[in-house]
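Support reply, case 0932

Customer input (verbatim):
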Amino acid sequence: MQSVRRQLDRLFAVHMAIAVVTGALCFLTPHSLMTPMLGDASSDTHLAHEFVRLYGALTLAQGWMVWRTRLVSDALIRRTFCQAYCICFLLQAVALLRAQIAAPESHSMLHWVNILLLGGLGCAYGYFLVFKTIKAFELPGMDKGLL
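Our regenerated output:
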């Protein structure tokens, strides 16, 4: 059971690394580099860039949160995080996939990378929810079960 716990901690660490890199890129990229991706230099691009920065801030905070979750010993909390991340990432992947199918000409290859990354993280968290027992969410040495 400890190996399963370590696998979940490894998933948390991978998630943290992805969140920090993407969050930092979204938050710190200057507007001059974002304009080609966002379209013409109208006021709409400034608004879109604000949303990208806000998303980056949330993603950075999520990276910190998932990193610290590795230290949580409560199985129910760890399982709840897995459920939330599974739902969140799969819904984001579906939303991006729908946008890609609806207007493929207005999306780049980066869009497919995001779809695959979000879908992969969602499926990875789903794997732990479907195929692993609640013991996988507990710290090694904990003998009491919550369910």
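We compared this against your earlier run and they match. Two observations from our side: Residues 16 and 64 are 7 Å apart (CA to CA). The two ends are 16 Å apart (CA to CA). Please reopen the case if you see a mismatch on your end.
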